[in-house]
Amino acid sequence: MLDRPDEHQEIRDAVRALCRQFPDAYFRAIDAQRAYPEVFVDALIGAGWLSAMIPEAYGGSGLGLTAASVIMEEINRCGGNSGAVHGQMYNMGTLLRHGSRAQKEKYLPAIAAGKLRLQSMAVTEPSTGTDTTRIRTTAVRKDGRYLVNGQKVWISRVQHSDLMILLARTTPLAEAPEKSEGLSIFVVDLHDAVGNGLSVQPIANMVNHETNELFFDNLEVPAENLIGEEGQGFRYLLDGLNAERTLIAAECIGDGYWFIERASRYASERIVFDRPIGMNQGVQFPIAEAFIEIEAANLMRFKACALFDTQQPCGAQANMAKYLAAKASWEAANVCLQTHGGFGFANEYDIERKFRETRLYQVAPISTNLIFSYVAEHLLGLPRSF
Ligand SMILES: Cc1cc2nc3c(=O)[nH]c(=O)nc-3n(C[C@H](O)[C@H](O)[C@H](O)COP(=O)(O)OP(=O)(O)OC[C@H]3O[C@@H](n4cnc5c(N)ncnc54)[C@H](O)[C@@H]3O)c2cc1C
User: What CA–CA distance (Å, rounded) separates 374 from 28?
Assistant: First the structure.
């Protein structure tokens, strides 16, 4: 069951072949050094996997979110962590759907050729948290450019990206017709920005995930870097957020299968009281339960992917897929750790590393409570709770 072929087998086999060159020990060492998996990322770029969603006309493979999600799933399933690279997949959707022709011509061929990376998206702010429409970072238009001031927190991969999608308020909240209007998104050239109005302060954290605090002090962004229409950025961003949630659901599915495979193998091999521990129902049932939940979450993940790829609304499915998959992978992680007893805590088994990595997805990119509140309000018609 864990290795049954499906319609994405060609992609799976190819990504697995690449990942085989980067065994557990590689990712373990990167984690221990709190380093970025540069050689692995270069290999992914070289093989064209990170330009999967770029149309062929711009040098990519022209694949959809479903295929992109399979690539991310396989990296995690092979023991790696797609968190190092998934930004390029979900940011790509924003640029493809809402970027101008000139922006696509400027950036996409260079990204496809591996000369530029679009790995960062800056939304979260320290003072407003999940209440995104109240962000305080402003972009004020002046003489063919925008002046950006404010602060962001937890922004991933800034030190390993060339470009960043930035959300900022262009109309003060009090003057905006709706709180979700008056927000705009920009593509920021990080090489131009850092040291010229943008400063970057790394945040050490529980997982080896490169995150940063960003300080904007009159950063100049050329007006042509505005994506789409001024004031409509929040709407554009939602596409990117739905893609992000769906991709992360797929990564959690990959983690989940990794944990189930490791737990099943160990439970079959570890002999205690003269028999494999997996002969005990108290050991095998939790593994079976975790597997069932991964399988169920996977259905919602593919549903969200299919809706996104056919340009249909997918907010509900993307949120539910992310909730189900993050919960299932976390339960599988817990079961895998428990099955390994004390050995699960030893770094060399990689379980504690993957355990930390998959725990993140109950909080980021959206916390579980906020998904419940979305479902309660938007699907069930319950009164808004905040
Ligand atoms: C490793 C990492 C990488 C990240 N990368 C990025 C990135 O690249 N770009 C980016 O923009 N952001 C990024 N984030 C930020 C992430 O998206 C946020 O941390 C997440 O959305 C939660 O927001 P917050 O931390 O501000 O929590 P808060 O909004 O402060 O919420 C704290 C807790 O309170 C709960 N809560 C808040 N309001 C309510 C309510 N009304 N009802 C019920 N519960 C509520 C939340 O569910 C949460 O559990 C990253 C975070 C981490 C940890």
Answer: 37
- In the numeric block, the tokens 């060399």 are attached to 348
Q: CB atoms < 10 A from the CB of 110, how many?
A: 17
Cβ neighbors of 321 (< 8 A, separation 6 or more) are: 245, 246, 249, 297, 300, 301, 303, 304
Which residues have C-beta within 8 Å of that of residue 5, sequence separation ≥ 6?
A: none
Residue owning the nearest CA to atom 37 of ligand 1: 130
Q: Of 240, 385, 243, which is closest to residue 317 (Cα–Cα)? A: 243
Is-contact 128 153, C-beta < 8 A?
A: no
In tens, the pLDDT along 292-325 reads: 999 999 999 999 999 999 999 999 999 999 999 9
List the Cα angle 319/365/345 in 5-degree steps.
110
For residue 267, what are the CA distances in angstroms to 67, 276, 277, 280? Answer: 33, 6, 5, 9
Residue 159: exposure state from Cβ atoms within 10 A (0-12, 13-18, ≥19): middle
Would you call 244 a catalytic residue per the annotation?
yes
Name which of 337, 343, 367 is nearest 355 in CA terms: 337
DSSP letter for each residue of 309-378: HTT---HHHHHHHHHHHHHHHHHHHHHHHHHTGGGGGSGGGSHHHHHHHHHGGGTSSS-HHHHHHHIIII
Give this prediction's pTM: 0.97
Name the token pair of 351: 């379980």
Q: Which of 319, 369, 374 best tests ligand 1's pocket when mutated (most atoms within 8 Å of CB)? A: 369
Q: Residue 108's CB: how many other CB atoms inside 10 A?
A: 24
Residue in 73, 181, 244, 251 annotated catalytic = 244
Tokens linked to 251 = 């990564």
Atom of ligand 1 nearest to the CA of 157: 8
- CA–CA dist 280, 342 (Å, integer): 18
Distance CA 175, CA 183 (A): 12
Which residues surround ligand 1 with Cβ inside 6 Å?
121-124, 129-130, 154-156, 205, 209, 211, 360, 363-367, 369-370, 373, 385-386
Residue 299 has which token pair?
């259905």
Please write the tens of the pLDDT for every residue from 35-93. Answer: 999 999 999 999 999 999 999 999 999 999 999 999 999 999 999 999 999 999 999 88
